[in-house]
Amino acid sequence: MQRTLSAQLQHVTPGDQVIVEGWIHRRRTLAAVTFVILRDRTGLTQVVVKDPAVIEQMQGLGEETVVSVTATLVTNPSAPGGVELIDPTIEPLTDPAQTPPVELWRPTLKAGLPTLLDNAPVTLRHPRSKASWQLASARMQGFRQTLTAEDFTEIATPKLVGTSTESGANVFTVDYFGKQAFLAQSPQLYKQMLAGVFERVFEVGPVFRAEPHDTVRHIAEYVSLDAELGFIRDHLDVLAVLRTALAGMVTAIEETAAPAVELLAARLPTVPDEIPVLHFRDALKLVGANTVPRPRADHRWTTAAPVRRLPVGDRGRRAERGAVRRLPAGLPARDACARRFRDRPRTLGGTADRRREHPGSAAVPAGPEPAHAVERDGGARDLRGIGYEWNMTLTRLIARPMLASMFVVGGVNSLKNAEGAAQAAKPVTDKFVPMVQKAAPNAPIPSDAKTWVRINAGVHIVAGLALATGRAPRLSSLALAATVVPTTVAEHPFWEESDPGAKANQKIHFFKNLSMLGGLLLAGVDTEGKPGLAWRAKHAATDVRREARQLSKAAKREAKRATK
Length: 564
Hints:
Layout: E1 17-29, E2 34-40, E3 43-49, H1 52-59, E4 66-75, E5 83-92, H2 113-118, H3 120-123, H4 127-149, E6 153-154, E7 160-161, E8 173-176, E9 179-183, H5 188-198, E10 200-208, E11 221-229, H6 235-256, H7 258-264, E12 277-278, H8 280-286, E13 294-295, E14 301-302, H9 313-320, E15 323-324, H10 333-338, E16 355-356, E17 364-365, E18 373-376, E19 379-382, H11 383-416, H12 418-439, H13 449-469, H14 473-491, H15 500-524, H16 533-563
Parallel strand pairs: 3-5, 6-10, 12-15
Antiparallel strand pairs: 1-2, 1-4, 2-3, 4-5, 7-9, 8-9, 10-11, 13-14, 16-17, 18-19
Helix pairs in contact: 4-6, 4-7, 11-13, 12-13, 12-14, 13-14, 14-15
């Protein structure tokens, strides 16, 4: 007798014997009967067990044990599919399975992400997880079938390549038998070569890009749906093929994965008969931009207000399905290519008013912000980025006084006990003062150790209080760091100790001060998310060079006009 799938049981005559095989999905034991739900690739089947021997056998078979059940089929409207199996003979096909860490029969999985990933061979069997895979499978199937019907040839290109395929994208390097190779970023080169062979080609395969990401949607590795075709008149031919492929993918989901769509409560998009083609000005308005780029008096391009990206609701969905037709009216292509929108400093969790430029076209918004983006400081800011900045501000508020406390207390103690501290510092000042006096012979440099101890204590108190209160924190951190070295050498010279206990104690204090020095150096370079001096100097120099070039070009133009 052949195996019968759960979805086929509805077509079996009641009273016939059948064999079903699958996983024990759930067991429910009552006083005199046990209900066993069996799961296979097509659905669920209910098995009713009343034989005491079989009930006892089921006590030793945990959920997810693979079994074969031979039983009689009867109708039962309350059972899955309207039928159930009675008088079963159950044969385990594997060793009894351990109880899974999650209950797969629940509508949703409540376990945390670590549990789901650590037990992926089991947790992926949950109907909702399975449905996600079914949707992806249907999409790829629709893509393949549609392009094959359009006379495309499917190809499979290498994923280990000897050079990068796209400029500007980072690559993963691989040791290929002692030579350097790369994981392919794109099948672009191979598509172009084979388009000269088959004219129309496509591929469904993985691509790899070594680009950091801070969102749940990343491109380090993903399945790419690529196509290449020849003999096109313009971009409208490409859009027509794209529209056909999208419609085929949606149709395939409707036809082959309808139960998965229903289970996930997914809403399939409606693909229009023709992809909308928008003027650039209309595209900006559609995504919420207030104005289009316009020239300033100094020939640089600007916008009257920052671009605000709103992918929420119908406007955002329409924007995702459109194509930009042309440049803004009056925007020369030469100037559009030359114009460069500089990125503002990036913060973790979000970006501020970023734009990118495309060769041969106007600079366009870098892409839609998340739905939780808000207007702040002249640009769209991610609430997650704001939360990150708030957390960092709170951390600085707590950490700075903690770091400064030892210097303030130590400075006060040094002032109270200047005599004792001077004796410990004398070996250092005897070496340090002559060097300073030699470098600056005319400077009024004190020579006694007690004065230096008081100066050092004063720096500790003043700079420590400034750091604790957030007044000039970078400057005060560096000032404290400069005093840590001589203080540490003077007070904790463990290398001079002969007693093992004293040496160990001095060594501990020496390395504590060394750790504190590292913390001060980090505080000294903390720009609090604002542009540092190096960044400002670099971009100021860039602006100066740009202005100089523009003035030079303007002078040359005026000179040419004067000679005519």
